[in-house]
Input
Amino acid sequence: MPASSPVEEGAVREFGAGLRGELLRPEGDGYHAARRVFNGMIDKRPALIVRCVGASDVMQGVDFARTHDLLLAVRSGGHNVAGKAVCDGGLMLDLSHMKGMRVDPARRVARAEAGLTLGDFDRETQAFGLATPLGVVSMTGIAGLTLGGGLGWLNGKHGLACDNLLSADVVTADGTLLRADDGENADLFWGIRGGGGNFGVVTSFEYRLHPVGQVLGGGLLYSAGEARDALRFYHEFASSCPDELTTSASLGLAPDGSLVAGITVCYCGAMEEGERVLRPLRGFGSPLEDTIRPMAYAALQSASDEGFPSGRQHYWKASYLKDLTDEAIEVLLRFVSEMPSSSSGVGLQQMHGAASRVDPAATAFPHRDEHYDLLILSQWADPADSEANVRWARELFEAMRPFFGEGVYVNNLGEEEADRVEEAYGEHYGRLLALKEKYDPANLFRLNQNIEPASRTGEAS
Ligand SMILES: Cc1cc2nc3c(=O)[nH]c(=O)nc-3n(C[C@H](O)[C@H](O)[C@H](O)COP(=O)(O)OP(=O)(O)OC[C@H]3O[C@@H](n4cnc5c(N)ncnc54)[C@H](O)[C@@H]3O)c2cc1C
Output
C-alpha cells in the first residue's frame, strides 16, 4: 500500500507546524528507522509519523487522525510481536522518545512517560533500591506491557505491572487528556489495566514502588538426558514455592544443536532464606551450569536480552498451562528437538502468589489463577525460512492443545489471532465492550487486540 498522505498537503503542513515533536514523512530522514518495530516480519509504511515529545503532540495527533479519518497506530516500545504499533497508510503516533521519569523515593511512587523501556525504568528506580513488577527482557516497552497486564520476576511477591498502577494520563478519542485513577474516571482506570490500548493513548503512568535490592537470581541448565526429569521436578518445586520466588522454565537448543532445559529464578526476599528455599532445586540432578547468585535486580532484568536481538523474524503462539503433565513434557521435548531454527524455543513463565490472589474483578486482567504462560517462540533470521518456522510453531501449538487451560495472555497474541481476542479478555469482555462504546464508539483505537464496538461490527478495519 502506498505510504503517501491521503490528506491535503496544506493541512499536513499546518499540522506539522503545530507540533513540538517532528512530523516524519516517507521521503524524509528518520522515517524508515521510526517505522521499524522489534518483529522483523512487520514491514508497514505509515503516511505520517508523529515523533511525540509530550501530551500535546499526542492530543493533536489523535485529533488529526479522527478529523481526517486516518488509520491510527500507537507505538511505545515497539516490542509487540503482532506489530500493530505501525500501520500501512494512516498516522503513527510514536511515543518512544517520551522518556521522562520522576521517582519519589519517600512516597515510593514513580511517574513514567510511555516511551520508557523496562531497562530505562529499572535504572531510575534501582538508584533508590526500588522497583515495580514489569517483564523479563529490558528492551520491552512499559506501556504495552502494563496495558496488557505485565508478567515478570516480581509477580509472586508484588503482583502484575497493572496491579501496581496508581494512575495514568490518557488521551481519549475526542483528543482530551483524562486522569484515570481509583477516584477519577475509575471505569477507564479499570479498563486500561488489562484492556490494552483500546480506550486511548496513555502518555504517562504512575506506579507504586517496592524495596527491591539484590535478588537471588540466575539459572540452571540441564542436558537432553536430564531435561525430562528436570522439568518434572521443576513443576513440583514451582507449585509450592513462596511468593518471594518467581520462576520460569525453557526448552531450547545449545550451540552444538543438542536439546537443553533451563530453569531461571528470581528470589526477592532475604538472601539466606532464598538460599534455603532454592537448595532442593539446585541439588537436583547434575546441571551443566548453575549461575544462581546474588545480583542486582536490573542485571537479572537484562540477562535474557541477548536472546532477542531486534529485527529478527518472530512468530509466537501462546496459551495458559495449568498443569505440566508428563504427556505435555513429551510433546514439548519432541518438537523442540526438531526445531527448524536454533534461536527458537519454548518458555513457561510462572504466574502465582500475589498476582494470582488479586480479585479477578479488580482490574480488566481476568486470568488470576496459578498457571504457566506457555510461549512457543519461533524466531529466525532469514525471511526465506519463514514458512518452516511458522509451521513448526503452529504444529506444536496444535499438539499441545489438549493440555491448555482457559484463556491466553493478550500481549502474546499474534497478528492473525483476532478470533482469540474474546478468550484473552475472558469474563471481562462484556464490561470492556461497554467501556469501548463509552470512550471510543467509532473505534479510532483499533490497531490493538481489538474490542470492536457493536455499532462498528462488520466495518472494515
Ligand atoms: C522479547 C520480548 C519479551 C517479552 N517479555 C514479556 C514479559 O516478560 N512479560 C510480559 O508481560 N510481556 C512480555 N512481552 C510482551 C509485551 O508485554 C508486549 O509485547 C507489549 O505490547 C510490549 O509493549 P510495547 O510498548 O513495547 O509495545 P508496542 O509494540 O509499542 O505497542 C503494542 C500495542 O500496545 C498499545 N500501546 C502501546 N503504547 C500505548 C500507549 N502509550 N497508549 C495506549 N496504547 C498503547 C497499542 O495497541 C500497540 O499496538 C515480551 C515481548 C517481547 C518481544
About this structure: Residues 37-38, 74-81, 84-85, 95, 114, 135-137, 140-141, 143-145, 147-152, 196-197, 201-202, 308, 411, 447-448 surround flavin-adenine dinucleotide (CB under 6 Å). The first strand starts at residue 22 and ends at 24.
